[in-house]
Amino acid sequence: MADNLKTALNTDRNVKKRSWIKAKDYIVRFWPLYVMLLPLLVYLFIFNYYPMFGLQLAFKDWYIRKGIWGSPWATTDGTLDLFKYFNQLFSTSMFGEKLINTLRISFLKMLFGFPAPIILVLALNELSSLKFAKFVQSISYIPHFLSWVVLGGIFLSLDKSEIFQSFMTALTGGNVHFFSNDDLYIGFLVFSDIYKEVGWGTIIYLASLMNIDPQLYEAAALDGAGRFKKIWYITLPGLVPAISINAILTLSNVMYAGFDQIYNTYNDVLSGKGETLEMYLFRLGVTGGDYSISTAIGLFNSVVGCILVIITNFVTKAMGGDGIW
Whole-prediction pTM value? Predict the structure, then answer.
């Protein structure tokens, strides 16, 4: 038995040694690629991981002179109270209102925005003219490369345009101002988000279509399947892996209703339904200087997003789909 154990240990050491030699060989052979990867790792550490140390502000009474590390842990009446700012946050009616606003906007974007690139890619796939399909695809990409600063200015100018208002009067019987009405503003957020990202969202689905065997369509045609049956039984099942991964990533951002978009089109008239948790965080932290409670909001958003990713990944795999791990 001792000999068997010794043999097993030696085998394990040999396997580890071979793995290390193999890894070292890969590093030597592909060192230019690893050097190219280095700036990305540095970027991720500086802008994604190092700032995570600042999350401790949610549990501290922050003083600007003492900084993050020197500030004391949060206390209430001289007693240690690490969840002081979370209790303050959850006890205010403002938090509940902003949370509802965030979820309302996020779920409406998911309801209408998530299927939009799928519908577009199905339509592009059914076009008989390849040149026209590529032209439409290229045109749909353009808004993605425009920042919300530019698009926000365009939409704000359009809202004040006499030509646009004349068109809306002829269409609806009156002027339509998206930036002075809560309900219209939410509709604008959903529409403009689709307009900006629908083309870019088709990329991953178009890549998935390339993996579908063309012989499946030929076989279906021989069996008498029409266009819609081919879409339902061949194209959509081929897109399921990409759809499941996109669904997980989309749900991870449910607490982030689009800060850039809202910040560049928001005004105080829209505070009833238009101010999300991120805007509330910005107003408390950047404008108001209350960094502890704003950090608590940010940490809350991140925890909820992480939980949703785990749940969605589990449900997706349980239903036979592909998860992200």
Answer: 0.82
